[in-house]
């Protein structure tokens, strides 16, 4: 995952490590992780810092490491990530340059409006041109819709 990180998150499945996400901010003391689900559950998180300069993850201890930043989303100010509650693996990664959130979407959805740079789901970028509106199911962590 690299020699240093500002923070990390991990997912578990039946008490075993299922996934690991490591990130770096330009100034490590600015790094924050905020749970997005207002009802608990902790499946969706926002990683923030003065600028996210590195984000790497692995969905199993046997697979290689996937680097998303630096790369396609090098100008990310924050990153939304979600975990699958059944497998503990990383479900989605959404680097953003500016975003606001609400609960105004579909029932049980977290809604994000702003400049979403990409929408990575299971290693595939579903929105290479980005998006301005994304809805994520707060129970499953799955991206429900985007435009």
How many strand units? Answer: 13
H/E series, N to C? EEEEEEEEEEEEE
Radius of gyration: 14 Å
The percentage of residues in β strands lies in: over 45%
- The level of helicity is under 10%
What is the tally of helical segments? 0
- Derived structural class: mainly beta
Question: Ends: how far apart?
Answer: 32 Å
Kindly give the count of domains: 1
Shape: globular
Biggest β-sheet description = 9 strands, antiparallel
**Low-pLDDT segments:** none
Mean pLDDT: 87
What is the compact description of this entry?
The chain is built from no helices and 13 strands. It is mostly beta strands and 147 residues long. 35% of the residues are buried.
Describe the structure.
This protein is mainly beta and 147 residues long. It has one domain (7-146). It is 0% helix and 54% strand. It has no helices and 13 strands. The chain has strands spanning 7-13, 16-25, 32-35, 44-48, 52-58, 66-69, 78-83, 90-102, 109-116, 120-121, 124-125, 131-137, 143-146. Strands 3, 4, 7, 8, 9, 10, 11, 12 and 13 form a 9-stranded antiparallel beta sheet that branches. Strands 1-2-5-6 form a 4-stranded antiparallel beta sheet, with no helix packed on it. The chain is globular and about 40 Å long. The model has no long low-confidence stretch (mean pLDDT 87).
